[in-house]
Amino acid sequence: MNTKPTISFVIPALNEEYHIGNVIKAIKAYTPPRIFFEIIVVDNGSTDGTVEIAKKEEAHVYQKPKLTIGALRNYGVSKASHEIIVFLDADVYLRPKWKSHIGATVESLRQDEQIITGSICGLREDPSLVEKCWWGPRLNRKHIFYINSGHMIMTKSFFHRLGGFDEKLKSGEDPELCFRAKTKGARIVNNPKLAVIHAGYPRSLKDFYHRERWHGRGVFKSLHDIASSKVTLLALLQLSLLIACTVYALATLNGWYLLIYVLFLLCLSTIAAYHNTKKVNPCMFICMVIAAAFFIARSHAFLDIVFGKQFLRKRSDLPFS
Questions:
Q1: Which of 29, 80, 100, 306 is surrounded by the fewest CB atoms within 10 Å?
Q2: Burial of 316 (0-12, 13-18, 19+ CB in 10 A)
Q3: Domain total for the chain?
Q4: Is residue 272 part of a domain?
């Protein structure tokens, strides 16, 4: 009987020819020799060289256009033949430390399958201020609500018990899965030792706004989901106050009402920034601006849903970028 650990890497992709070859090379370089592994790429209809490059790198490639990101990942798992599933985005690179610590992670999952682990994706070598101030302070957090599916690790059996990702969601499928897992007693474990780099973090405030506007669409699935998310409730409160202050300002021709909204957004952004950075420093003040963009983008996502707007994004802002 073979007792060697086995891993299936599941990678959804769309027009990722710039990264996919090197991402697969990093998997090969940083997966220990004592672990059997396979690489499954589920392509969402690429029009560039993604499929050809992935096949050249000996990945198992399946072409499934027009599926949601959750459906792509579910399909990948359905083709997986190994016991441990590593979900990886097509622009997320394993680093040398990953090789040293994945063995212990696999053994812990074998002993207790009710664990969802992985790590918060690290920053590239030349991060922008948006990357450093928004994602940088989060990297070593122990207490997190969910693992991003850009680098999520769990057993295939537990994944099937959960019913996989919600295929109806266009985004936000990873926190939704983790929420269901926690109702079944699962532990969500961020392991910074499993180091990866996300090359697709938005570098500018504009790209950050578009990314959060897209991801925000996934959190308005139901009243229950909205009520259970403090961030979503705060975004809706911010939107409601903006509408109310604007209406009063127009009705009374008194622009001071808008100051109430500005002060509220300033307080909200300050609290969010301090919660993110845990200290008062120059990065916190940059984070305040980013936090304001975050809450406005999430409320923008709500308006997209209310008015049925189809929000099309450029390739670099795809939900699995």
A1: 306
A2: middle
A3: 2
A4: yes
